[in-house]
User: Fold this.
Amino acid sequence: MATSADHAAPAILNEVNPPELPRAVLVENNRSFTWITDKICGIIEGKTPAWWWVCFIVACFVASFTVAGITYLVATGVGVWGHANPVNWAWDIVNFVFWIGIGHAGTLISAILCLLRQKWRTSINRAAEAMTIFAVVCAGIFPVFHVGRVWFAWYLFPIPNSNYVWQNFRSPLEWDVFAVSTYGTVSVLFWYVGLIPDLATLRDRFMAAGNKLRATIYGFFAMGWRGSNRHWSNYEMAYLILAGISTPLVLSVHTIVSFDFAVSLIPGWHTTIFPPYFVAGAIFSGFGMVLTLMLPLRAIYKLEDLITQYHIDCMCKITLATGTMVGYAYAMEFFIAWYGANPYEGFAFINRAFGPYAWAYWTMITCNVITPQFFWFKKVRQNTALVWILSIFVNVGMWFERFVIIVTSLARDFLPSSWGYYSPSIVEIFTFFGTFGVFSVLFLLFIRFLPIMPMAELKAVTPQADVHGGENHH
Amino acid sequence: MSNSAKNAPGSFPASSPGANRALAVGIVGIVATAGGLLLPNNTHAVAHSWLVGVTFWVAITIGMLLMTMIHHIFDASWSTVIRRQWEHGLAAFPWLAVLFLPLVLATWFGPRDLIWPWMNPEHVLHGHGTVANDILYVKKSSFLSINMFMGATAIFFTVWIWLSARLRKASFTQDSDGDLKWTRMNRVTAAFGIPLAALSLTFAAIYWIKSLEYHWFSTMYGVWFFANCVRGALAISVLIMLWLYVRGDYKGILNTNHLHSIGQLMLAFTVFWAYVTFSQYFLIWNANVPEETFWYNLREINADGSPNQWKYVGIFVLVFGHFLVPFLYLLSYKHKIVHSKIKFIAIWMPCVIFFDLCYNILPALKNEHGDALPLVSVNFIWTITAVIGVGGIWLYAYLKSLPTAKLIPIRDPRINESLLHHE
Assistant:
């Protein structure tokens, strides 16, 4: 209900005399709409580059480790993983939370930045959303195969069955089933709705180039998009609603993942800060993975005008902020473990820092708390190679965070007589290693066949798209 | 020029005669609260009430400090015209430090367990001997010592006052010289100030509120306090802006999009508050460990198992009043932009934050059975007078600061964007 007075330039503008502090442009070198379309579509339309084939073959080979690992597990039994008393949950749930964290971050980045009207999201949101879906696929492998007899995994859903087996609705693991499946569905929808205008662009371009097969395929998925006002109006509303739905959904999903641990009584797991701490960790790891994926793509496809230094700065700063939040949570956990004066809780944290898994704990602290502090420095943020290396540290650190939380608490719980030391089996290592291949295969296919950036949205943030002439209208 | 400002933004706003009235209200509130000391055996109740009053306004001022720094660190534009009012609000920190002094002096020179039982080693616990013999206290005695408490409180106020002074000085000076170095200085202040503010508000919440029942612990507590700080600051700043609009100062400056944006933030932080508060409650309820649940049990049932008043405060004031009502109300676009509508929720929110602080602080007042004294009792009067008293002084500090700087930061590099803020 904005009034006409809201739209008129206030009279006081004549009285203010601010200094100039130009904002960074989101598409550099004054690139035209055509250039953007050609640049993004060119990645799909051009000949498949040799590097892509090399990476794809290597990724397929790596993915075969997962296929071999889970095939062996199904044929032999879940005992081929290294779980044994007292650590009955280990790499399976570590890897699940690692991948689901990355998976949550993609939509979180995309949806929340959309709701916050952060226009710089346009260069990274498509790839972040794709990353989400592929990461959820990788995450799903672990709990599904951890059930042992995977053909009974459908028992996780409340489907009436002849054995009258009913789910334990009080278990957060059951909540995970609903949360992750709902999240996966909404993420795919969010991603797909965003793709529709760009798929139509590809359809039209392939049609014009005489490639009817690809035009038909892209046309099928473009669902008759014609770019009319009505289409755009409905599209914008649908996208905003999906962003609105995705935001609380993604927060709730990672909260429920944190409940997997926090609802228990295990020292080191039962702590009230877990929900926001896990969400901050997910954003942290998500930006880490986005940097890991996008910086090489930027270099290979020469996308410097679209993923500018400003975009890298923003991502680094958010990584710094969320890494510091995670550091706050680590510190608070440690402090309250002492302040609470519960000897078991206190021991759990001393054991983490100085026990047999101290190497993992300090790796986590180094990667998650110290590494992002380098992003305080502009020179570091401007060194793309260094940013990429630091983003790898973030990924490593977030895997170790889950390992530290899960394994150290279980390996030494209440009864010293049952303490143990967990080491993964070779099957577990292969299975996890292979998921990077699965992820890479899917991501490479995405790069090759779908527009890696939302062309229509990118055009909307160029100076040419600003009807006010690009002057101070943000 | 129907929307022209009564006071041009390039000039200084007129002094408000309300400043003296606010001071008078503050003094009356303080005197009325102090009057509670005349009643027999009422010292503890008055002291706890004073803690609620001071903490409430400290929370709002910390919220304004955080919002100012968040504005700078994000290089935000739309909130530039609002920021100036947050900066005036920061003028209250030195006054709040002074108003916290009675608590310090009373515990230092008076009965040590006036508010925080752990300050007196001879304090008798309900069924647990004395504090000095309490193993749970002994283990954390290096942190919960009176010297640490006093030193930490001095550090908290020093940090808040120092950060506020830096932010205000840079912003006000830029009005006259228009130098960009002040914008950069405020960004730097915000970059190191946000972690400092986060740590100080967390430990203030632990020392001042959580340690009232020092057996209890929760890692979420600082986050809960943070959520209340920001919600309170947003609500009070809406009231200030609407008052300035009615006075004529903000006509032509404040538009519906500013209110919409701030209303969206109020909605977001309503959800955030509910998220952290529910998570804390749920995880403790679900684990059902007595060393944690006793804190909530104290706020639900008496020793004989009968429900107490705090149970209904929890259900109706916190669940409905603090979350559901503002959540559903702020979903509406109209409620965020129509002055009378957003004013309603901007008054509502500080009220429920006040009750939230009461819920966290006042049950520390117990009867001989160890049951929490009820909210609605003669003690509640002192809580209300304390909030009004400290509020009067807070408002006085704000109003005295108002004419010392230009109405809006007219030479802030983002002021044009803010004045033209649109969806």
